[in-house]
Amino acid sequence: MLENLAEMLMTHHVGGSWRAPLSQRMRDVRGPDGRPLGRMVEGGAADVARAIAMAAACGLEGMDPAQRADLAARVLEEWHARRAALEAALRHGGGSDATDLPPLAPLAVSGPVAMLGTVAAAPGLMAAAVAGALRAGQPVVLKPAPRGPFTALALAEAVAAAGAPPGAFALLQGGGAHTGRALVSHPGLGAAVVLGKAPRAGLFGVRRLG
């Protein structure tokens, strides 16, 4: 996976595959320590609308609860199987260690859930939050921190390998002011949460997990 990092940061994971962006807005990628790590394409309003439309049509909520539980378990299995790639991504881009956490309690909402990662969010928290939402029948649109985008690439591949319905999970790269704001303001969103410590979470008025 890691040999394709530069290419993957120029796409979004939507509808079960890596897709060309609808927005051409670019930004520099820097590690938590400020060192330059390349460039990424930022998701815009059209990318957000595409991801949420696919999430709404994915049929996850209609799956049998036992099937969703199996899916969530497979996501975590695939995540752990990518441990080496995850650790290499952390070395490349910085970030928290691969803390293992149990799936989080689902949110009592209807509609896709936006998850906004922070640099401080442990990779295990991201994986647990996504698995918990899928188990509850809630599609996820994940936007990792622009200073910690690499571990989310491994998570996207884990969700796809687990056999999630196309659209049940989307990964949009970008910053909070552009991609994050477009995501949390979309009317088709059921809820939005911030993963990890986020001093500016109040900017969007969203709940914090972790």
From TrEMBL:
Any one GO molecular-function label of the UniProt entry: oxidoreductase activity
Superkingdom per UniProt: Bacteria
Keyword terms: Oxidoreductase
Residue stretches making up the Aldehyde dehydrogenase domain: 125-196
Coiled coil (residue ranges): none
Protein family (similarity comment): Belongs to the aldehyde dehydrogenase family.
Protein name: Aldehyde dehydrogenase domain-containing protein
Higher taxonomy: Bacteria, Pseudomonadati, Pseudomonadota, Alphaproteobacteria, Rhodobacterales
